[in-house]
Amino acid sequence: MEIITSKDNTRVKNAKKLYKKKNRTNSYLIEGQHLYEEALKSGADFKQIFVTEKFADTPDATLISDEVMNFLSDAETPQGIIAEVSLEASSLKPEQLNKLLILENVQDPGNVGTMIRTADAAGFDGVILTAGSADIYSPKVLRTMQGSHFHLPIFRENDALALYQRLKTQGTTVIATTLSETSVDYRTVSQPEKFALIMGNEGAGITPETSVTADILAHINMPGQAESLNVAVAAGIMIFSLTD
């Protein structure tokens, strides 16, 4: 098997550009054995696969030196396998799904990845990110999701309020988490047949417009002295409370 030993190799340099969102027009990079295996199981379309000697038996892979892998990798300790995967839009529409998680302007990649993974674990049908949320194909989000984006559809919506109205028209109950005079204890919220759970920005929470549009405003009581919960922790509580 031929081996690429130069960081100036055109394929390697073009692949590395995919770490930047502006260069991801139709593909993105995944890294590590677990993500590769999840992609493989999901039937993902691989454009190319780069491996070191450790994974030399990977079908259709291109062997690269450790030095080139260190250059190409975004991880502190590269595992030895990086794949370029085609971006594929879901054939489903959010209105067709019964259990949705909506991330409204959630900016921290770790929070985004954790919440998507939690929704996957709880059996949600899909996740929607509004325009102000982190890019799910960034390396940190991909590492935190652990392949959950291969298990459930993830949508991007630029007009959040139009989305909420569209969902409501299709019989979806919109539930937003916020602490206000009109919010109710999340434990009193029964699981609707179709619902969308909105988690807001880490610092600002949901927008004022969303608080007016939502069918239900819910909060998590905190008997201790902490002022707030991490949004991903709060999402975990809410997600599983709606799937019991």
TrEMBL record:
The Gene Ontology CC terms held by the record are: cytoplasm
- Give a Pfam family name: SpoU_methylase
Q: Keywords for this entry?
A: Methyltransferase, Transferase
Enumerate the GO terms in the molecular function aspect: RNA binding; RNA methyltransferase activity
**Is this entry keyworded Methyltransferase?**
yes
Tell whether Thylakoid is among the UniProt keywords: no
Enumerate the transmembrane spans.
Answer: none
Which range is the signal sequence, renumbered to this chain? none
GO BP of this protein: methylation; RNA processing
Report the residue ranges that make up the RNA 2-O ribose methyltransferase substrate binding domain in this protein.
29-91
The entry sums up its family as follows: Belongs to the class IV-like SAM-binding methyltransferase superfamily. RNA methyltransferase TrmH family.
- This chain's protein is named RNA methyltransferase
